[in-house]
Write a structure and sequence with these properties.
It contains three helices and five strands, in the order αβββαββα. It is 29% helix and 18% strand. It starts with 7 loop residues before the first helix and ends with a helix. Strands 1-2-3-5-4 form a five-stranded antiparallel beta sheet, covered by helices on one side. It binds zinc ion.
Amino acid sequence: VAESSDCIFCKIIQGDIPAEKIYEGDQVLAFLDVGPLSDCHTLVIPKFHCARLDQCPAEFLAAIAKSLPMIASAVVETVDADGYNVLSNTGRAAGQLVGHLHFHVIPRHTGDGLFKSWPANKYKEGEIKQFAKKIRQNIQS
Ligand SMILES: [Zn+2]
């Protein structure tokens, strides 16, 4: 498993920095965010150093996908949440603060006031088809 010596999450994986770990598998670690948006806000990370989702080996992503429902259920049960957000910020522009891929599991309660707005825009006429076409051309499988 690759790691980076100046990465805070790699240090948590190594045990060099303490964290409240709630789940650990061969390829995945989950622990409580020390700056929670709500109680039991959890971070789920691959035990492989990569900054971006698109740099993460498929086997680690598969392990994350497998563990997320289990982790989310346990977190929701613990705080009796009405729902939860799963999100990953990639790049500074998107609000990524630690350069090691991570998924937030944020428990939500009705009316909790987090993420008050969803600033949806509208496409101009025909624009959605053009974007979709370009993305299809850029998809590499
Ligand atoms: Zn790392």
